[in-house]
Design goal:
single chain; mainly beta; 2 domains; nine-stranded mixed β-sheet; four-stranded antiparallel β-sheet; 27 strands
Length: 521
């Protein structure tokens, strides 16, 4: 801090008035103020954050039309010009994949498919036409890089990447061998890097800078059925240049595990049954898209978190819960924002309404492989396995474990279960007037009718578990929802062979019920 000094001086003046006497008059006080300071400066700091900004645009899109006579090759079916700009200093990459049927990775996603309803003919992507195999049509793509005449920045140039190790279409370029996408090559069935830059691109106008031009070629065999064949190629910009390929969205028909499913495709036939594996324990489940438009499990969940191998496999990437919740469920640990500390023990029979059963997770697997009366396409001779019973604390992965008068703080606002024990990308359905109710409105309730909810959801009458024994096995089924009813109660769905109660509620969260999961979007 600078010091400012101020000096005050008092002056007394003696004034001679005669030789005889001297008189002291009141003195005149003169005040003088002196200010001094060191040199100083003020620095005003300005911080500007420039976010990464990447864009890609295309011209000439969706304009590739050609009439090709049978037995001929067309090497230039239109062209698409891509302009890509990105200020990421670590560069960016462009991936491409066949997109036929509005999805990547499907059976026909890199084929040209006939549009006539009665004609399922396709033109394969890059299937070689050879002397020994002359009657195969094919199509392919290639990229070229050009710079506009006004662009003098050599650093803006792209690198065209090498294609995967697949045979080039023999009709693409005479004498071509394995090469980058600068020559005609297979339209990939999954995302493949086709071009990249190791540094950013000048953010010039989209009419300037570097251009990537894609062209397509096709050979039409002499026996190719007359039709209009259509397909698409999707291009995705990612950054930095070494970023992983985009994730291919998968539905029930393209996934092999529960965790791979990322959307419930509207193109799936209603009620078509698929089989997927849970990555956590290897259990397989039947799944289907039902009349409400959601994809549902058609079997009761049978995940046993008391099994050491299963427990060691559970993590945030394969379970619909945070890692903190999973750790607390399996190992015990710190309290989560006023909720109870939880630790799951070996199989126990304590499903009573006691304090302990509500704030600690409990399962029972003694009936896991027991067959009971069942309905629907996944039953075996009208029977199916019970699966595992979970109290609601376990069903919610240890995140909904408080109870009234237990000494554990109840959250100020009662909320639906924030997470659960379902596989990643799946979750428990909502109760009350939620997803169970909506589904029930789409079907009847007579289990002997193939249009009933019992049949289409393929339910076993698995009963429940309370105190130390199972009850109602073979006559009723009970399934948790994620929705609270009151401070101590949860909605659930129950049913028997003739009735569906889609918005039941119960104040006993310590009872063991079954779990069904639906695909979370």
């Amino acid at each position: 801090m600078k010091t400012i000094q101020s000096n005050i001086l008092n002056s007394i003046n003696l004034i001679p008035l005669g030789l005889v006497s001297l008189s002291l008059l009141s003195g005149t006080i003169l005040v003088s103020s002196t200010v001094s300071a060191d040199d100083t400066s003020v620095v005003d700091q300005i911080n500007i954050t420039v976010p990464v900004s990447c864009t890609m645009s295309g011209t000439g899109m969706q304009s590739h039309n050609a009439n090709i006579n049978n037995g001929l090759y067309d090497h230039d079916i239109g062209s698409t010009v891509l302009h890509a700009f990105c200020n990421d200093n670590e560069g960016f990459a462009i991936y491409a994949a066949g997109y036929t049927g509005n999805e990547v990775g499907g059976a026909n996603s890199n084929k040209l498919v006939g549009t006539t309803a009665s004609n399922n003919a396709t033109i394969e992507s890059g299937i070689a036409t050879t002397a020994s195999n002359p009657d195969v049509s094919n199509w392919a793509m290639k990229l070229t890089m050009t710079q506009d005449s006004g662009d003098t920045t050599a650093d803006n140039a792209f690198t065209i990447d090498s294609a995967p190790n697949e045979a080039l279409p023999s009709q693409a370029e005479s004498g071509a061998t394995q090469a980058p996408f600068s020559q005609y090559h297979v339209v990939p069935n999954e995302y493949v890097k086709v071009a990249h830059k190791n540094s950013g691109t000048d953010m010039t106008e989209t009419t300037g800078g570097v251009k990537l031009t894609t062209t397509y070629a096709a050979y039409i065999s002499k026996t190719q059925a007359a039709d209009t064949y259509s397909g698409q190629v999707i291009y995705v910009l990612v950054h930095p240049a070494d970023a992983a390929a985009p994730t291919i969205p998968k539905s029930l028909d393209t996934a092999t595990t529960m965790q791979e499913v990322t959307y419930c495709s509207e193109d799936l036939p209603e009620g078509q049954v698929y089989t997927l594996t849970d990555e956590r324990d290897g259990n397989t489940y039947h799944v289907a898209r039902l009349k409400d438009g959601n994809c549902w499990m058609l079997d009761n969940l049978a995940l046993d978190p008391t099994d050491p191998t299963t427990a060691s496999n559970m993590n945030v990437s394969n379970t619909n819960a945070t890692q903190e919740a999973i750790d607390n469920l399996l190992n015990g640990g710190s309290t989560i924002a006023g909720w109870s500390s939880v630790a799951i023990a070996n199989v126990v029979d304590d499903f009573a309404t006691s304090y302990n059963s509500l704030i600690r997770p409990r399962i029972n697997n003694t009936s896991k492989d027991t067959f009971v009366t069942s309905y629907g396409p996944t039953s075996i001779n009208g029977r199916a396995k019970v699966g595992i019973y979970y109290n609601f604390c376990a069903a919610s992965t240890g995140t909904y474990c408080y109870t009234k008068d237990s000494g554990v703080d109840i959250p100020d606002t009662i909320i639906d279960a924030p997470q659960d024990i379902c596989p990643a990308n799946w979750r428990m359905p909502t109760g009350g007037d939620g997803e169970y109710y909506t589904l029930s409105q789409k079907y009847g309730s007579n289990a002997t009718n193939t249009n009933s909810l019992q049949y289409n959801l393929s339910v076993p009458l698995s009963g429940s578990y309370l105190a130390s024994s199972a009850s109602n096995q073979g006559s009723y089924g009970y399934w948790w929802s994620s929705t609270y009813y009151n401070s101590n109660g949860i909605y659930y769905m129950s049913l028997n062979s003739t009735n569906v109660y889609s918005n039941d509620n119960i104040n006993i969260r310590g009872v063991g019920m079954s779990i069904r999961c639906l695909m979370a979007e």
